[in-house]
Design goal:
The protein is largely without helices or strands. The chain has a domain of 31 residues. 4% of the residues lie in helices and 8% in strands. It contains 1 helix and 2 strands. It has a two-stranded antiparallel ribbon. The longest helix is centred in the first third of the chain and has 4 residues.
């Protein structure tokens, strides 16, 4: 199987430029080498470092009733006792049951 059309490298550029922020070295009128292509405020801001020290407790909800796992309960029926109960299978007339 001949795969030279895919694996063969005909041309490889020696240019090393970031495509998101292309910067080139060119010469100005005086012959000095300057960087061309720098666009002010075109890069995202650097992420701020996290503060060293104790963790933030702003999202803690332990002091709020019902705001943590396992507190869903029975909803509207939590404080109400069941009044009507009936036997679904009556077996008092069966010996040994």
């Amino acid at each position: 199987m001949n795969n030279a059309d895919v694996s063969k490298v005909d041309f490889q550029s020696k240019r090393m430029v970031n495509p998101l922020s292309p910067i080139s070295d060119i010469r100005d009128e005086d012959g000095k080498l300057i960087k061309y292509g720098v666009v002010e405020k075109s890069c995202p801001k650097v992420i701020a470092e996290h503060k060293k020290g104790p963790l933030s407790y702003t999202l803690k909800t332990d002091d709020i009733n019902g705001a943590h796992a396992g507190t869903k309960g029975l909803g509207a029926f939590a404080e109400r006792a069941r009044i009507h109960q009936r036997e679904l299978v009556k077996c008092d007339d069966i010996e040994g049951a």
